[in-house]
Automatic annotation (TrEMBL):
Keywords recorded for this protein, A-Z: Cell membrane, Disulfide bond, Glycoprotein, Glycosidase, GPI-anchor, Hydrolase, Lipoprotein, Membrane, Plant defense, Signal
Keyword Heme: no
Chief location: membrane
Lipoprotein recorded as keyword: yes
Signal peptide bounds: none
Record SMART domains: X8
Reactions accelerated catalytically: Hydrolysis of (1->3)-beta-D-glucosidic linkages in (1->3)-beta-D-glucans
Protein name according to UniProt: glucan endo-1,3-beta-D-glucosidase
Amino acid sequence: MDRREILTWVCCATVAAALVLASPAAALGVNWGTLMSHPLLPTTVVQMIKANGITKVKLFDADSWTVSAFAGTGIELMLAIPNDMLKHISSDYSHAQDWVKENVTKHDYDGGVNIKYVAVGNEPFLTSYNGSFMKTTFPALKNIQKALDEAGVGKRIKATVPLNADVYNSPENNPMPSAGDFRSDIHSLMVDMVRFMNSNGAPFVVNIYPFLSLYQNPDFPIDFAFFDGGGRNLNDQGHQYTNVFEANYDTLVWSLKKAGVPDMKVIVGEVGWPTDGDKNANLENAKRFYDGFLKKMAEKDGTPMRPGHLEVYLFGLIDEDMKSILPGNFERHWGIFTYDVRPKFPMDLSGKGNNKYLQRATGVQYLPEQWCVLNPDVKELSALGSNLDYACSLSDCTALGYGSSCNNLDRSGNASYAFNMYFQMQDQDVRACDFEGLAVITTKNASGNGCLFPVQIVSAARPAAVATAPAALLLAGIAAFLLL
């Protein structure tokens, strides 16, 4: 090799090394949920995902429009079968065959979509579901894996079931990871299921949320939810735990060990921090969480029980203004990008601590810069309450809740915010800014004091009905509180 060849080789090797160092930590994945009133074109979102070096995406359905956008990108995809389809898939094997044909093999060709997993259901054993999917999940899983095998793709595409961390626990009198085991009411089912998945080379996909540990327990030590120390230190048989994520993960590892599959692959299917909708859901805490988490992923230390690389999917990609808020108002604010696909805060996916913003989506178009607000000239406000209830029940007023970004508005501000959210949700239809004469359209930006009055983007799809009955009732309750 002559001197010029050596210099060229050194230069290329240096560039390659730099690219590796700049790539997302351990090839991070991201969850892309689409429960939003104004979605972008899937191709636009996929281009943004690629621009940020994200190589794995987890979906919550198998919508062909979305899946097709990944063709030729090489991005690894996890498709999903929603919980409401589990009974159908489990009841007849031919239904599983049809689903695989329509949603997997259809996209599986040279230059097509790189499908890696099929998620059968989503957290189907949540205690809040009261056993609704207990009898259908495992049969559906077996049918899908059999259909994948029969289609000739089962060796590279595996069926799994993303599960919430509530499927395992440690007893109250010994709250240590080593005491962990699968929940007593589903123990035999879980043992059978993990052994089946493990025998087929499928991973255990678990969703771990340090934020929820804090949200559900007012006495939870806040620093234990993060990765920068300063909090409690848990000692379990010589293993030190300084954060709840590692303790939770290793509780699962112990549960798998006791189920007879100690080496089963584990994927963290969802992990993240919301930015609004609760006193602890804000930009500052989200940045603190991600900075610490991404640094940990880059170090590839793993956990005390599973040292090394961890495979994780961040939750989530974009805020979803049509998600159910039954778990809490924060549910609509998990995105690392806003509704109009702007990065919320500086974030270095490589975990190297470079304080820079991710690349936003290009070509996003907005509706005209106008807002719907409470008419300041109206003095008779007796109908304000019922109209505010209506606006919130058919839009997204979660930012008005206690501890949220717009919680400091007065009565008029609350009304204006609710009216504008409904107005934007309805694509600024002039008929959507009346409210029995209480509202008026203005070109003066109503945002202020940290509260954003958004202007909606041009949707790539027709708007759908926003609030289900339970969600509408909850939002009406919020509205009633705002008028106190």
